[in-house]
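in:
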């Protein structure tokens, strides 16, 4: 327990140090030159940040950076909650959700996409090549194939086996994964990659990619591909992304809420904390057993995070530190 407290204490210290490093001393925030930075949800965010950082460090834009980071998570990371290694739905079908947005309000998303291994890049094509924002299911797949993406069976033998084991004990009941709260440090419980970046010109972008909740009803779509729920970006203010039980984020238009709170003057951390308070106020009982986590980055490069329950960690990468992993504060749990 001592070790854990110590870790959290150090994390809090690092978080405030980061908040300061986005500014130059003596200058008002509004005229501050901004250093490039990328932040991501969960421990695998440390690795996902690396390809994103490569783009930023060589002068590339925030949008390219978050796409590259998300692509890494979708393929190189073999993780049961993101991309090709994701766990399937109740019927054993792997469906992927993703969204991408830049600070000028351009955005694209795909939901319930099957058999295409880079949903984030399909989302970007939706943004850039169509007059629409979101494509779902068969239509999204058809569009992806037209755009040159390969159709391939993605479900891994491990994910299929996990599904068979789940089906044997679960009586075909879709789950809202409350276990997530009890085993927050368990790697398999880590979810969606939400990534936010600011480039050297102060432009913001974000990406969010997931296989959604394991064993969900076929056709269920969470917050991750829904602009304003799992992701929101505005160059005038900042960016926010979410992980956890997506139904709560959708109910509260939560990432949009975080950005709007920053617009009203809250720091990223205050905005995330207030959005969590909103989730709790709406459904106090449900909040005791569901995890909801927010990560925000404002236009000055300041970072903040807050969760309903202990266990949410996020990764920060910039010129000073490439592999920082910080723990967020939380409403419920040890020390909260
Ligand atoms: N938010 C995602 C969803 O609800 C999954 C997660 O991050 O836990 O689909």
């Amino acid at each position: 327990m001592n070790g854990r407290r110590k870790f959290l204490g150090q994390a809090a210290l690092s978080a405030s140090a980061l908040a300061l490093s986005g500014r130059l001393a003596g200058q008002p925030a509004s005229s501050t030159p901004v250093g490039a930075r990328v932040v991501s949800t969960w421990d695998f965010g440390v690795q996902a940040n690396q390809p994103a950082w490569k783009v930023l460090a060589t002068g590339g834009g925030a949008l390219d950076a978050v796409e590259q980071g998300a692509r890494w998570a979708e393929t190189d990371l073999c993780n049961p909650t993101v991309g090709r290694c994701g766990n399937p739905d109740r019927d054993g079908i792997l469906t992927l959700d993703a969204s991408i947005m830049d600070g000028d309000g351009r955005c694209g998303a795909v939901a319930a996409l099957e058999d295409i291994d880079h949903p984030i890049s399909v989302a970007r094509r939706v943004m850039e090549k169509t007059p629409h924002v979101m494509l779902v299911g068969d239509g999204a797949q058809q569009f992806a194939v037209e755009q040159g993406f390969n159709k391939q069976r993605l479900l891994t033998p491990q994910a299929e086996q996990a599904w068979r084991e789940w089906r044997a004990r679960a009586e075909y009941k879709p789950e809202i994964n409350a276990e997530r709260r009890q085993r927050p440090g368990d790697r398999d419980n880590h979810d969606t990659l939400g990534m936010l970046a600011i480039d050297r010109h102060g432009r913001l972008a974000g990406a969010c990619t997931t296989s959604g909740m394991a064993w969900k009803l076929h056709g269920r779509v969470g917050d991750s591909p829904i602009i304003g729920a799992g992701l929101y970006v505005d160059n005038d203010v900042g960016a926010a992304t979410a992980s956890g039980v997506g139904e709560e984020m959708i109910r509260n238009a939560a990432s949009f809420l975080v950005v709007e709170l920053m617009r009203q003057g809250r720091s990223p951390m205050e905005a995330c904390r207030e959005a969590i308070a909103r989730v709790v106020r709406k459904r106090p009982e449900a909040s005791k057993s569901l995890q909801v986590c927010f990560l925000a980055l404002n236009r000055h490069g300041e970072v903040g995070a807050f969760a309903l329950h202990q266990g949410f960690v996020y990764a920060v990468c910039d010129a000073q530190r490439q592999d920082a992993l910080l723990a967020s504060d939380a409403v419920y749990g040890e020390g909260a």
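note: The radius of gyration is 18 Å.
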